[in-house]
Amino acid sequence: MTQPLTTELVCAVDLGGTNLRAANIDSSGCIHEHVKFPTPDTDKAEDIVDAVVAAVAHCETEAAKRAARIEAVSVVVPGSVQAESRVIVNAPNVPAIVDFELAEAMEAKLQRQVLLENDANAAALGEMWQGAARGSRTIVCLTLGTGVGSGIVLDGNLWHGADGTAGEIGHTSVNPFGHVRCKCGNIGCLEVYASATAIVRMTREAFSNHPASQLNSVAEGDLTARQVADAATMGDELALEIFRKMGTYLGIAAANIVNTLNPEMIVIGGGVSAAFDLFAPAAQAEMLRRAFPVPAARCQIVRAECGDDAGLLGAAWLALARV
Amino acid sequence: MTQPLTTELVCAVDLGGTNLRAANIDSSGCIHEHVKFPTPDTDKAEDIVDAVVAAVAHCETEAAKRAARIEAVSVVVPGSVQAESRVIVNAPNVPAIVDFELAEAMEAKLQRQVLLENDANAAALGEMWQGAARGSRTIVCLTLGTGVGSGIVLDGNLWHGADGTAGEIGHTSVNPFGHVRCKCGNIGCLEVYASATAIVRMTREAFSNHPASQLNSVAEGDLTARQVADAATMGDELALEIFRKMGTYLGIAAANIVNTLNPEMIVIGGGVSAAFDLFAPAAQAEMLRRAFPVPAARCQIVRAECGDDAGLLGAAWLALARV
After folding, report:
1. What does the pLDDT read at residue A191?
2. B174–A172 CB contact, under 8 Å
3. What are the φ/ψ torsions at residue B301 (nearest 5 degrees)?
4. Residues A113-117, mean pLDDT to the nearest whole number
5. pLDDT above 50 (res A95)
6. Which of A262, A311, B186, B222 could form a disulfide with B166 if both were Cys (CB 3.0 to 4.6 A apart)?
7. Could you give the maximum distance between any two Cα atoms of chain B, in Å?
8. What is the pLDDT of residues B179-230, one digit of tens each?
9. A198: helix, strand or coil
10. What is the mean pLDDT of chain A?
11. Is the pLDDT of residue B6 over 60?
12. What is the pLDDT of residues A147-196, one digit of tens each?
């Protein structure tokens, strides 16, 4: 006779451009048996499938050791997932899985259903379930990393759009007549002003106006957004200016979100959110300056709380909703 | 013994800045007993209540003459309706009803429930029910008139946001670093480039570059968007340029909508949509240039089909959904 389960357990996988992470997560949001491997550097989708299946198998083995059973498997990927076909499109950081049916390939090997979701969408759910947006039902989550991902949760549910490609707020124009072209082809995307990549570019562009900045001593090609943040924290005027500028662009996007969707909260996650205090005041001020008073007063801009686990937690939330 | 009703009948009222229109509308979308009065030029909310109640009473009397019964009453207004309080905010064209509970005041006089909705939201529903978006479930409708209103329908339902103020796409920034301040206080709203007012302003600003334009002969203060459209239709280069420019800005907003919401369709209504063929090619091209390929290919930009009746039809749809 099996014991009644007090909590359900699901296996969540976060396939990133750099690392592949997996964990068993229970219905109270506790993370168990967490593992992290480098994502295979490959152009073969089959290699990615093998790596993800191995991660799930590891989680299953670990769960079995404590007599726990995984009820569902959920994978999040750095690309858009087309709604009906579940084909992955737009995954520049894991090109091997573009135009590939990852979930179907996993299902064939695991002999169980696999849920598939975009990583930024999952991060929004993770923050709503266990992070900064607990208790809110309508939020936008912006993940500021190498690029800018986003997820939209409306009245408790992810908004996927007609094809599953909704929520690309990182690729809305905050300076449509500027000089910076995004990798996506558009001019003036939020991503080219609010990502880690953007912070490095804007800093380099501003060197000539700030010859005294300590950042001038960093060798060409070595500059990172982290270094710019550290310099800002130590009072470097160039670095402070870059984060104010980045915050202003973020505030333009936030105002557009607020007037369009009237959310309760905009959650800022991703690696760049470590510098939240450096850019948030400018973002908040710009949002209030541009958006209508009623929805602007309602919408808080807050720092994400789940860190690297947001995607895993969101993946688990989706899987638990199916159990 | 009463006869069984074959179709339900509701009374829809569209309170505009210029005219107050009302009609009885049946569940097949047929419009009966349509009336139109000038909206009272008043700063007293009570005068507006009296006018709207009189319009409903007229519709009730007319329905009674053919032994039909009105099942529900629905009013749309040119302002945001706060979700819980049903207080109207942001109604620059009918200032008497700002911060006023119009529905409650009507209910007290009519002794029946009254539904209240924003006019641009209702227009989106009207186009989905009886117009250009028949068969679609996820659309954005932009109403280009004196200002730019918009309504967002997601999976068949209006998206109101946390407070009821969502859908103000006319006040998202399409040129945030431009020189044009909107009445709302923001710089570079879609409204200052895509409304009738904007067309007149942009035409005046371009006069000096087009001394040969026939529009130069129009007396200061007399120029209308209709005249600019007529001139464009006759090949006037200044007028054609203005509509291309307006279409470009509309395309920037459309690309932001497409990447954010992934809708099936963007419907363009309002008086300015009479010039659809003059601005739509530029809008479509700009949207395709800026948005991601998958959602851009999916989203059609189309001309509204319900004309001045869109708001009434949307109001009726809401009322019928409650019957």
Report:
1. 97
2. no
3. -105, 115
4. 95
5. yes
6. A262
7. 74
8. 999 999 999 999 999 999 999 999 999 998 898 899 988 877 789 999 999 9
9. helix
10. 94
11. no
12. 999 999 999 999 999 999 999 999 999 999 999 999 999 999 999 999 99
The residue of B159, B261, B264, B298 whose CB has the most chain A CBs within 10 angstroms, and thus the best one to mutate to test that interface, is: B261
Which tokens is B111 given? 């002794």
Q: How far apart are CA A318 and CA B227, in angstroms?
A: 55
Residues 121-150 of B with CB under 8 A from A: 138
CB pairs under 8 A between A and B: 144
Residue A118 per-residue DSSP state: E
Q: What is the pLDDT of residues A241-281, one digit of tens each?
A: 999 999 999 999 999 999 999 999 999 999 999 999 999 99
Distance CA A314, CA A152 (A): 13
Closest by CA to A118, choosing from A314, A322, A306, is A314
Nearest to B27 by CA among B16, B49, B12: B12
Task: In whole angstroms, give the CA distance from residue B215 to residue B234.
Answer: 11
For tokens 């001139």, name the residue: B231
pLDDT (average), residues A286-308: 96
Query: For residue B292, what is the nearest residue in chain A, using CA coordinates?
Result: A184
**Rounded Cα distance, B27 and B98, in Å:** 31
In terms of Cα–Cα distance, which of A14, A26, A192, A5 is closest to A94? Answer: A14
pTM for the whole structure: 0.94
C-alpha dist (Å) from residue A51 to A23, A47, A88, A109: 14, 6, 17, 12
- Which DSSP helix (H) or strand (E) runs through A76? strand A73-77
Integer Cα distance of A56 and A58 in angstroms: 5
For residue A140, list its beta bridge partners.
A152, A266
Token readout for A266 is 């905009």
Pairwise CA distance, residues A238 & A250, whole Å: 18
Q: Report yes or no: A161 and B261 within 8 Å, Cβ to Cβ.
A: yes
Maximal C-alpha separation, chain A: 74
Q: What is the ipTM of this complex?
A: 0.94
What is the three-state SS of chain B? CCCCCCCCEEEEEEECCCEEEEEEEECCCCEEEEEEEECCCCCCHHHHHHHHHHHHHHHHHHHHHCCCCCCCEEEEECCEECCCCCCEECCCCCHHHCCCCHHHHHHHHHCCCEEEEEHHHHHHHHHHHHCCCCCCCCEEEEEECCCEEEEEEECCEECCCCCCCCCCHHHCECCCCCCCECCCCCECECHHHHCHHHHHHHHHHHHHHCCCCHHHHCCCCCCCHHHHHHHHHCCCHHHHHHHHHHHHHHHHHHHHHHHHHCCCEEEEECHHHHHHHHHHHHHHHHHHHHCCHHHHHHCEEEECCCHHHHHHHHHHHHHHHHC
Q: How many CA atoms lie within 13 A of A313 on its CB side?
A: 22
Per the structure block, which two tokens stand in for B173?
A: 């920034």
The runs of H, that is alpha helices, within A84-167 are: 102-110, 119-130
Residue B183 CA from chain centroid, whole number: 18
CA dist., res. A35 & res. A56, Å (int) = 10
Which residues in chain A touch residue B257, judged by CB atoms under 8 angstroms apart?
260
Over pLDDT 90: what percentage of chain A?
Answer: 85
As a whole number of angstroms, the distance between CA A273 and CA A270 comes to: 6
**How many other C-beta atoms lie within 10 A of the C-beta of residue B165?**
27
The length of chain A in residues reads 323
Residue A202 tokens read as 């804007």
When CB atoms are compared, the residue of B159, B167, B174 closest to A176 is: B174
